[in-house]
């Protein structure tokens, strides 16, 4: 990766108080340490952890999952501290219930029958509306929120973000196994999601009014539960003053999550700046983007993918470098360039999460060996001054 700025003056560093906040949500599986199978302990683990971290923990759609959240943060170090604290609380709460926390986009192993669904009315409505499609809808994501309170601007910003979705899937791919089988994909979670008509890249919308109108039309077909709560990979969050990016698998390491979050903040800020200048963003057809997302899910970091700026196919490593250069002025201004370049170098040396899972399953260890290592990596919550180690 080129990281030589000696010929250019260093940009001014933003005051910490002026930085747009960023926050994350991470979903995890709960597994039995002996059988390595997912266990429906989400409600118990969430209640246990709430005594330590309050509303930064929540139940998930499948009862074998639990979600951890951070508050809005302004710096990478602040985000790292909060994320490490939340993960540690969830690891301890799971241990207190005789379980282990596992950061993988899909369950590596599985028992008999469909996933047990939580009691939330929205979860039950999803089960009724989508029926058997929900039987294996136990998947764990990383969601990143970037503060952007102007909803009209948020919709226009999303237009600029859409072409980057395939690359985000490739960078975060961490779900090669599903129910003890190597799927041949880097992100099987993305494949499971792609079956649903209301998940994936959002439609291009020239205004907030058009965005809302499209959601109503889709909800009227019953392909979406509620028009006010679309589950596209990008959206102005319905309840928070943020742009929410939802395409990524949950990541194995705290520092990976921090790096992706601040990279996305710089991308949102860069895109919002273009939108404010009247640039409408590239109107790539949603079917083209869905096809590009499929290829990213199949090949991950090791393959080639869709160039968000030209539409050509190039190696993902080159596309990652291009993204960093695209947002570099903001990364430098916010003091995040080193965090992001360290993450990309780690991918270049060790591959994505899917590559690592396959390596851990090798040598006769099998998928159970991948679960054991995933549990250890999920529990590794470094202090905010630590850097990514060569796992």
UniProtKB/TrEMBL annotation:
For this protein, the Enzyme Commission number is 6.3.2.2
Q: Where is this region: Disordered?
A: 1-21
Q: Which Pfam families match?
A: GCS2
Checking InterPro entries in the record gives: GCL_type2/YbdK_subfam, GCS2, Gln_synth/guanido_kin_cat_dom, YbdK
Tell me the keywords, alphabetical order: ATP-binding, Ligase, Nucleotide-binding
* Top-level taxonomic group: Bacteria
Look up keyword Ribosomal protein and say if it applies: no
Q: Does the keyword Ligase apply?
A: yes
Catalytic activity, as annotated:
L-cysteine + L-glutamate + ATP = gamma-L-glutamyl-L-cysteine + ADP + phosphate + H(+)
Task: Name the Gene Ontology molecular function terms of this record.
Answer: glutamate-cysteine ligase activity
What does the protein in this record do?
A: ATP-dependent carboxylate-amine ligase which exhibits weak glutamate--cysteine ligase activity.
Q: Which family does it belong to?
A: Belongs to the glutamate--cysteine ligase type 2 family. YbdK subfamily.
HAMAP family registered for this protein in UniProt: Glu_cys_ligase_2
Instruction: Report what the protein is called.
Output: Putative glutamate--cysteine ligase 2
The record lists the organism as Streptomyces lancefieldiae
**Taxonomic lineage:** Bacteria, Bacillati, Actinomycetota, Actinomycetes, Kitasatosporales
């Amino acid at each position: 990766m080129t990281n030589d700025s000696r010929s250019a003056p260093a940009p001014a560093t933003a005051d910490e108080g002026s930085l747009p906040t960023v926050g994350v949500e991470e979903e995890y599986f709960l597994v039995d340490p002996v059988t390595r199978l997912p266990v429906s302990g989400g409600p118990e683990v969430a209640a246990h952890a709430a005594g330590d971290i309050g509303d930064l923990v929540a139940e998930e759609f499948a009862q074998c999952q639990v979600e951890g959240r951070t508050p809005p943060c302004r710096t990478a170090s602040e985000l790292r501290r909060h994320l490490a604290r939340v993960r540690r609380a969830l690891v301890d709460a799971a241990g207190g219930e005789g379980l282990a926390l596992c950061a993988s986009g899909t369950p590596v192993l599985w028992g008999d029958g469909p996933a047990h669904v939580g009691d939330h009315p929205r979860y039950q409505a999803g089960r009724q509306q989508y029926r058997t499609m929900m039987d294996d809808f136990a998947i764990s994501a990383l969601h990143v929120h970037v503060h952007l309170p102007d909803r009209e601007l948020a919709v226009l910003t999303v237009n600029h973000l859409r072409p980057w979705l395939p690359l985000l899937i490739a960078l975060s791919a961490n779900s090669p196994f599903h129910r003890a089988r190597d799927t041949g994909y880097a992100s099987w979670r993305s494949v499971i999601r792609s079956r649903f008509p209301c998940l994936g890249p959002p439609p291009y919308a020239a205004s907030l009014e058009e965005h809302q109108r499209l959601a109503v039309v889709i909800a009227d077909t019953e392909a979406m539960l509620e028009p006010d709560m679309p589950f596209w990979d990008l959206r102005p969050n319905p309840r928070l003053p943020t742009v929410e990016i939802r395409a990524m698998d949950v990541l194995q390491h705290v520092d990976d999550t921090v790096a992706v979050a601040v990279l996305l903040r710089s991308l949102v800020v860069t895109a919002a700046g273009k939108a404010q200048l009247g640039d409408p963003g590239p109107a790539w057809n949603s079917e083209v983007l869905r096809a590009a997302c499929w290829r990213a899910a199949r090949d991950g970091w090791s393959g080639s993918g869709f160039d968000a700026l030209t539409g050509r196919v190039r190696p993902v490593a080159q596309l990652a470098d291009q993204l960093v250069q695209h947002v570099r002025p903001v990364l430098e201004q916010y003091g995040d360039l080193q965090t992001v370049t360290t993450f990309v170098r780690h991918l270049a040396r060790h591959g994505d999460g899917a590559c690592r899972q396959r390596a851990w399953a090798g040598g006769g260890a099998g998928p159970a060996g991948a679960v054991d290592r995933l549990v250890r990596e999920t529990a590794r919550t470094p202090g905010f001054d630590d850097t990514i180690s060569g796992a």
